Amino acid sequence: MILSAEVECLIYDAQSLKQKRSVVKRIITRIQNDFNVAVSELDHQNLWQRTTIGLVTINSDKVIAEKTIQQTLAFIDSFPEIERTDTFLEWL
Q1: I want to staple 52 with a disulfide (CB 3.0 to 4.6 A). Which of 39, 43, 78, 90 is the partner?
Q2: What DSSP letter does each residue of the chain carry, written as one string?
Q3: What are the backbone dihedrals phi and psi of residue 11, each rounded to the nearest 5 degrees, phi first?
Q4: Which CATH number fits the domain 2-91, given the four candidates 3.30.70.1120, 3.30.70.141, 3.20.20.70, 2.60.120.650?
């Protein structure tokens, strides 16, 4: 089973692209180190306070794939400098 998620987020404290990229890079690096998912910034690279992060996991068990993505989303929510606004899940 392949589960992908597109996560749209706002970064309120970012006053420049440099600050935004610092926050996004830190979150992406931590996700790569802590979870069994592929992750990348997908959209809004040139906007200061907005980003879209893509997550993908592959597992033979649908429940485990769902649990992995939900844990990753909860991890993103734990960062006070970023707010998850929309999340789109898709099974492939």
Answers
A1: 43
A2: -EEEEEEEEE-TT--SHHHHHHHHHHHHHHHHHHSS-EEEEEE-TT-TTEEEEEEEEE-SSHHHHHHHHHHHHHHHHT-TT-EEEEEEEEE-
A3: -120, 95
A4: 3.30.70.1120
Measured CA to CA, the distance from residue 39 to residue 24 in angstroms comes to 11
Q: Write down the pTM of the prediction.
A: 0.88
Alpha-carbon distances, residue 16 vs 40, 48, 55 (angstroms): 20, 6, 25
Q: Provide the token pair at 73.
A: 């989303």
Q: Across residues 59-68, what is the average pLDDT?
A: 93
